[in-house]
Amino acid sequence: MPFVQNENKRELWMYKHIFDPIAADEFEHSFLWYEKKSANAAEKFYEAVQEALNAICIAPERYRKINSDLRELRLKKYPFNLVYFFDADKKVVLVISIYHQKRDPNYKINKQGK
């Protein structure tokens, strides 16, 4: 798997992030697709996801709302959005999708039964 939860020691104002199993599969599938094309592209994709996660964990309320519970952030240089919700009390972000922008936009919401 190309990612790990951010359980290392972080500053108190940072949120932790976790991946829904479907989002983890999407991440792995996309990473492996890029890896088949180019190790460098896969590495840059991984870095783009990590950069987005770091930004979300600093200020999860900052990014675009797509419904009453979900938000999203577009990756830099890649046609993907991270779709997530957060719990301010628990200081946790749950990534529910790494959504390719060419897919049906309803997928990012409806796949979770939301």
Question: What does this protein look like?
Answer:
The longest helix has 20 residues, at 39-58. This protein has helices spanning 21-37, 39-58, 107-110; strands at 16-19, 64-65, 71-74, 80-87, 92-100. Strand 2 and strand 3 (71-74) form a beta hairpin. The protein has a five-stranded mixed sheet. Helices cover 36% and strands 24% of the residues. Helix 1 packs antiparallel against helix 2 (39-58). It is of the alpha+beta class and 114 residues long. The chain starts with 15 loop residues before the first strand and ends with a helix. The protein has a single domain, classed as YaeB-like fold (2-Layer Sandwich), CATH 3.30.2310.
